[in-house]
Amino acid sequence: MKKSGLIILCLILTSILISPAYAKDNRYSYITFESVNIQIEEERATLEINYSVEDTIQIIVLLLGKADLKKKLYEVFPFENSIFESVDMDHAVLVVSSPSLNNGDGSLWFPRIEIGAEIPEIEIKTPRSTRNFNNSSEIPGIGYFAKPIEIAIK
User: Fold this and answer.
1) By the 8 A CB rule, do 12 and 26 touch?
2) Exposed/middle/buried for 78, CB within 10 Å: 0-12, 13-18, 19+?
3) CA 79 → CA 15, 56, 112, 123, distances in Å?
4) Distance of alpha carbon 107 from its chain centroid, rounded?
5) Residue pLDDT, tens place only, 112-153
6) Mean pLDDT along residues 29-35
7) Taking the model in full, what pTM does it have?
8) What is the spatial distance between Cα 33 and Cα 31, in angstroms, rounded to a whole number?
9) Does residue 23 contact residue 117 with C-beta atoms inside 8 Å?
10) How many other C-beta atoms can be found within 10 angstroms of the C-beta atom of residue 101?
11) Could you tell me the CA-to-CA distances from 63 to 74, 75, 99 in Å, in that order?
12) Is there a smaller number of Cβ atoms within 10 Å at the N or the C end of the chain?
C-alpha cells in the first residue's frame, strides 16, 4: 500500500514540476490541443475544446479527479465569467457569460484574448458568419450582429 501511494505521489510531483516546461506550441503541460470551436451569441459564448491528455497522466486524473485538468484549461483559456459544462479526457465545454460588449445598435464586439497555447484550428461562429484560424495563440476580436439575417420569402 505504501508503494502505490509513493508511486502516485511521484507521478503528481512529476506532473507539477514539468508543467511549465511544456508550455509551448499546441501543448500546455500534459495537454495537447487539437482544435477549439467557438459559438458566440449575444449572452454567451460556448467553447468546445478538443485535446488529448498524456496516457500516464490520464491514470492520475482518473484516480484524483479533474481539478488539475480544469485548472490548466482555465490557465489556457482565461475567460472571466466562465464555467465548464463538461471536462473529459479529450474534450471540454467552457461557457462564457456576457462575453461581448454591446454597441447598442444590434452589433457586438467580442474582445481579443490571448490563450496559453497555440491552437492548430480555431473556428468562430457568430449568428451571421464563420471564421477559421490556424496555429493561433489568440482568439481575435470580432465584431458581429446579434441576430441572423432574416430572409423574407414572398
Assistant:
1) no
2) exposed
3) 24, 29, 11, 17
4) 25
5) 999 999 999 999 999 999 999 999 999 999 999 988 777 777
6) 96
7) 0.81
8) 6
9) yes
10) 13
11) 21, 22, 34
12) C
- All cell numbers assigned to 41: 451569441
Residue type, 62: L
Pull the grid cell for residue 32: 495537447
- For the stretch 43-86, pLDDT in tens is 999 999 999 999 999 999 988 899 999 999 999 999 999 999 99
Cell of 116: 496559453
Cβ atoms 119, 136 nearer than 8 A: yes
Q: What is the DSSP string of the chain?
A: -HHHHHHHHHHHHHHHHHTGGG-BTTEETTEEEEEEEEEE-SSEEEEEEEEEE-HHHHHHHHHH-SHHHHHHHHHHS--SSEEEEEE-SSEEEEEEES-SEE-SSSEEEE--EEEEEEEEEEEEE-SS-EEEEEEEEEE--EEEESSPPP----
Q: Are strands 113-125 and 31-40 parallel, antiparallel or unpaired?
A: parallel
> What region does 93 belong to: left with phi over 0, alpha with psi -120 to 50, or beta?
beta
